[in-house]
Specification:
CATH superfamily of the largest domain: MetI-like
Order of helices and strands: HHHHHHHHHHHHHH
CATH topology of the largest domain: MetI-like fold
Distance between the termini: 6 Å
Shape: flat
Radius of gyration: 24 Å
Number of helices: 14
Helix content: over 70%
């Protein structure tokens, strides 16, 4: 296991290097930071002074070296819009995004696991067709449309939940359902498919022949092995949950990183955009690492060394 972790960590280094290179290139091709920072009536002397201050008069290779040096120190530059360092702005919004992402994944698990098991154990029944059809519909529904419909029904009509903002658990319910519904739909179909595969295995028939209770056969012997591909999907959904919350956060005015990212893109505040991109990439990398470790926990037969 230690050998595996060491290899995985070594693989992260070139990935991070590529991410920094992509972020640097994107920042340089999206526009001139001097033009974005200065007003329209700025003089040529002011433009030249800011160009020297930002180091844009140096060759691109030197600029990239400075960028990497600053990045190692956690310095992504200053935000044009907020007039302060970009990274603290992102870290200030990150807890709200993690709260929403975690709640959404919990909603997805609560919905998908029982529905996937029911669908698999009652194959080709009306319940199976209903769950399968519902999962297809849930996957096809855009997040922003579902969010608006939930607001109209539960906030405007019934008055059960707040329309927008963050503060109490009630504020979290509708955004979590909106973001978790699409993931739940995908996980439900995957759990059904995995369970159908597992339930046809010899060891499941042996467990039933021994007279074990069906619930133990399904949950202990079947579900645990069926969760391995589900863990993969959960890891891949990290980018959707951390970065993809931007539409949901905008609909519900949730003060997270996604909403900040949209505002920064509109304002061409590239320091904030590159800091957010790098943070999202880190979450994706480490979620994949944790998924690999979870495989070993779910199935002891999986060996890494």
């Amino acid at each position: 296991m230690k050998k595996f972790l060491f290899k995985q960590i070594l693989q992260i280094i070139p990935v991070l290097f590529l991410i920094t290179l992509i972020v640097f290139i994107l920042v340089n091709v999206t526009g001139d930071p001097v033009t974005l920072a200065l007003p329209m009536d700025a003089t040529e002397e002011e433009r030249e002074e800011l160009t020297r201050a930002l180091g844009l008069d140096k060759p691109l290779l030197v600029q990239y070296g400075v960028f990497i040096s600053n990045l190692v120190q956690g310095d992504f530059g200053n935000s044009f819009k907020y007039q302060e360092a970009a990274l603290p702005i992102i870290l200030d919004r990150l807890p709200a995004t993690l709260e929403l992402a975690t709640a959404s994944m919990v909603v997805a698990i609560i919905i998908s696991v029982p529905l996937g098991i029911l669908s698999a154990t009652r194959r080709n029944s009306f319940l199976d067709l209903f769950i399968t059809g519902g999962s297809v519909l849930g996957k096809a529904m855009p997040n922003f449309w579902l969010g608006i419909m939930l607001i109209l029904l539960f906030s405007v009509t019934l008055g059960m939940f707040p329309v927008s903002g963050r503060g109490t658990m009630a504020h979290l319910v509708l955004p979590a359902i909106t973001l978790g519904a699409g993931i739940a739909a995908q996980m439900t179909r995957l759990i059904r498919s995995s369970m159908l595969d597992i339930l046809g295995q010899d060891y499941i028939r042996t467990a039933r022949a021994k007279g074990l209770v069906e619930a133990i056969v399904i949950n202990k012997h079947g579900l645990r092995n069926a969760l391995i591909p589900v863990i993969t999907i959960m890891a891949l959904q990290t980018s959707t949950l951390i970065g993809g919350t931007l539409i949901t956060e905008t609909v519900f005015a949730w003060p997270g990183m996604g909403q900040l990212l949209i505002q920064s893109v509109n304002a061409r505040d590239m320091a904030v955009v590159q800091a957010a991109t790098f943070i999202i990439a880190l979450f994706v990398i480490f979620s994949n690492l944790f998924a690999d470790l979870a495989y070993r926990f779910l199935d002891p037969r999986i060996k890494y060394d």
